[in-house]
């Protein structure tokens, strides 16, 4: 398979998951497996008023592109899509999605998992939660860093 | 060069970016210069283990050289996804 088609989108506005999923790899009859993952704002303690996502314009796009390119060197992929939002979000809103298309499901699943692990810890986004008791930056978790060592 | 701050580093220092004239040879030397400025800088840079740095928009180490560099950014570990 040649170089995959890679699409990276960083935006504040909501995205239409259904339309994106429909359009992704549409017409590619050589790709038998499509995996999509969607991240949603979670209200773990029931008091989330909003989440703010800050990012580093310029570096964000480059980092996501580099992560997608790395995935394409490790798996044979036909298409890769990464959409990530920034700005204020409410609980239940979609933050981001990744989609991968490959000939077979193993590559599509593994590449999507890899993309998620890397964009959690290597793409310049920072989450701040605003709740009833004030606001706080979400701390990176040791597991997220450890997850990178799987690959 | 431009020095950028994100997330709680931006909040502690009180600005998102600034122009810095420096002769620092490495990121670590730049950090020493910034720390010496004012308490808010000293506080923001008190624990380098809690910070990450990008040099010209690529993740880097604190011993990275600054020769020819246009942009350095300091921020906490990233929490995307």
TrEMBL record, chain B:
NCBIfam families, A to Z: moaD
UniProt source species: Pseudoponticoccus marisrubri
Any Pfam family hit: ThiS
Gene Ontology biological process terms, A to Z: Mo-molybdopterin cofactor biosynthetic process
Region forming the signal peptide: none
Gene Ontology CC annotations of this record: molybdopterin adenylyltransferase complex
Sorted UniProt keywords: Nucleotide-binding
Domain of life from the UniProt record: Bacteria
InterPro entries attached to this UniProt entry: Beta-grasp_dom_sf (IPR012675), MOCS2A (IPR044672), Mopterin_synth/thiamin_S_b (IPR016155), ThiS/MoaD-like (IPR003749)
Name used for this protein in its record: Molybdopterin synthase sulfur carrier subunit
């Amino acid at each position: 398979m040649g170089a995959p088609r890679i699409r990276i989108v960083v935006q504040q506005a909501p995205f239409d998951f259904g339309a994106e999923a429909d359009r992704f790899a549409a017409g590619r009859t050589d790709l038998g497996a499509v995996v999509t993952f969607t991240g949603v704002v979670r209200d773990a303690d029931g008091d989330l008023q909003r989440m703010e996502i800050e990012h580093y314009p310029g570096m964000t796009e480059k980092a996501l592109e580099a992560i997608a390119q790395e995935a394409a060197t490790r798996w044979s992929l036909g298409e890769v899509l990464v959409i990530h939002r920034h700005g204020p979000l409410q609980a239940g809103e979609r933050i981001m999605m990744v989609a991968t298309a490959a000939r077979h499901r193993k590559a599509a699943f593994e590449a999507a998992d890899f993309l998620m692990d890397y964009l959690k810890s290597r793409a310049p986004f920072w989450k701040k939660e605003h709740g009833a008791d004030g606001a706080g930056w979400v701390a990176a978790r040791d597991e997220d860093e450890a997850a990178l060592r799987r690959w | 060069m431009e020095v950028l701050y994100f997330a709680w580093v931006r909040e502690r220092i009180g600005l998102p970016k600034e122009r810095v004239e420096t002769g620092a040879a490495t990121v670590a030397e730049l950090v020493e210069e910034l720390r010496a400025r004012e308490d808010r800088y000293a506080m923001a840079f008190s624990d380098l283990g809690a910070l990450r740095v990008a040099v010209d928009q690529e993740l880097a180490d604190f011993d990275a050289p600054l020769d020819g560099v246009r942009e350095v950014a300091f921020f906490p570990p990233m929490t995307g996804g």
